[in-house]
Amino acid sequence: MDTALRLRGTRSIRRATQALRHADFEQASKAHPLYLQSLEPSRAEALNAWVPPYVSFPPIVQPDINTDIMMLIRSHSLPALNLVDTAMTVSGVEHPSETRRLPDNSIFKYTPSRVMLNKLENLVQKLKDPDCELEGSLLELLSLVIVKDDDWPKNAFLVWKHYPDTTPCAVFRPDEEKSRGNYDTLSEEQKFQCIEVCRDGKETYTVSQREKKWESSGEDAFFRVMLAVKADAPTDTISPKQATEFKEQLYKNLLNQYDSISTSIQPGASPLMSLDHVNPARAPLQVNNPPIQLKCNPRWANPETRPACKYSPVKVSESTSKETMDSMQAVLDNRINECRKLAMDRAIPGDGSWFSFIRGPQLHEPHLNKATVPAFVISGGSAHKLAAELTKDYSLAWHPKNMRGARGRRAEPIYLLVHKMDYPTYASTMKEVIEHYPNLHLIGWDGGGLTGFGAARAAALAFADTLPYRPERIMMIDQDVVKTEQTRHTNPIIKNKVESLHQTIEQPIVGYGVGYPTRQATPSPFSKTPTPRPSDLDGPAEQFVSIRAPFLREGDGIYPPYMVAGGEDMLMSKQLKLSNDHRNVALQQEMIIKKELEGPADRPNPYWDKGRINTLKALFDAEKNIMIEFEGQHINLDTLLRKFEANGWISSHPSDESYNVAACIVERIILRLSNDLARKNIQHPSVSSSSNSLKTGESRPVS
User: Fold this and answer.
1) Residue 245 Cα to chain centre, angstroms
2) Residue 254, pLDDT above cutoff 60
3) pTM score, whole prediction
4) Positive/negative CA dihedral, 521, 525, 530, 535
5) Domain map (residue ranges) of the chain
6) Closest CA to 253 of 147, 111, 169
7) What is the 3-state secondary structure (H, E, C) of 487-533?
8) What are the φ and ψ backbone dihedral angles of 565, each rounded to 5 degrees?
9) Which has more confidence, 274 or 156?
């Protein structure tokens, strides 16, 4: 039923588009009023001048992101061009309160805009460069164009894989209604017809279809191998000249399809007139508003007490002026937009859901249903430690042996989420453990160039949203949380308490207890854990939580992906307004215990040492000019870190350590802004609470 409605909505929008092109406005209005409602006022006014008096248009309103207009985007398989917003507060640009506001703070899912159209133009322009690098967004465009070519086999789906031995993640299909989607949605017969593409990251492409295989490396490797596939010929028979001609043909085909693609991104967009204009890169942030007052956190400066406050290098002074709050708002806007730019920087195409996932063998699990409560565990760099822990004892809260279902029946699933860079290490190191426990599933996530704690949690919710058995609730558990009798999730009493608290506070998240930053000795079975102090009950819901569906009710879900260095749990709790009279109402009054995982750290650790650092460095380059008032001096963030180095608080700058500290400082500013807005009872688009929509079950309108 849902599929039929979705297709009907897509067809009606297409009919509306065709009718408008022929100036048949009455037919367009009948075909799909939402299409007309989505037009910008200037576009609608121009159309009204052409409309006969007897044609009545509905009022022009901003469409909600969940309306049929978003079906158009997904059904036409547009490249996931999540982009920076041009309305940013930089040096020489207007005041932030006067700029056009973004509709929400989503990183991986947000409303399409003219900025997306600009990016599409830039990608087309980029393809003209003979030496252009084929990153994920451009490969998405090319994949769409290739499968839409008249000479492409109509029963052959083009699918992309992260690694040769993993399940494909994105599929591009030649049929008209749905050009891109997830591989898991294909039938077995369709999967048998798929042409699988894998890129090794070094410009080597491997393509296979059943018993056939093609491979190509070096210059124009993608075009050479795809032409070989299309011609059903060996790769070495394709000359460099033929590959270049094929590339030029794809460019022409893209130009021919540009109008329909751009209309899908932004209804009413004008056809492509010139590709000579390329938007210049945005300059690093430079705000003209007053500097933000900071002072060093003495507990962080002390090496002995730093572990308990490792994410809090500074204290941000409470704001008393609108100008200072504007400065902090500019910092938040800049962080959001930089993260959007990073999130679209992918190595291979995605499936249209912003994140892409690497799934292992999909087991047939008919016993899973909406009452199943799976556990999601986010890990990184700990494959050897977890392999040792899971074979040593059952002390971890999420151990497969501790996941028995209702009335002791079949064990419920655990999804161990790791970044795609870590996936090969986990798959090989934990192979025996995963084979031994059929309810333990290894999942790789890819958020493009955006990594970090917030993105990982957002990825977990995005994956939960794809589960075919549609669980009504999930658990998110840190990898080092241990089982205690007071937080044992299989205990019917605790289970009922958690579900009851969800209903009472009408919030999507409930904590199984209070989380602490330090690790402790594992308590003995059935022992009584200490009761949290009253002052501890105002902390965030973290470490061991229950999250209720729908998991992507708004944008990326409840976790802000732009909090990369830590603090995503705290900001989430603030945005949902979980605290009341210095008490987090979403916490059970129990203590969550974390242990020190034993065993060697993974070496190499590509996600932590490369992926994470690349994200932190990119953010620092965009944020180093933030103006700070520190010890009576007006300096920028870059200079502040040099002072930290001089004081011995960090070993050197620039360095991996200093990039992380810089990100933590920015996130302290974001948290302070959230506090100040809440104190002043101000609702702001970028940090406003979604609690009202969560209570009513409705999505917050885009403002």
Assistant:
1) 37
2) yes
3) 0.73
4) positive
5) 2-61, 114-265, 292-344+603-696
6) 147
7) CCCCCHHHHHHHHHHHHHHCCCEEECCECCCCCCCCCCCCCCCCCCC
8) -100, 0
9) 156
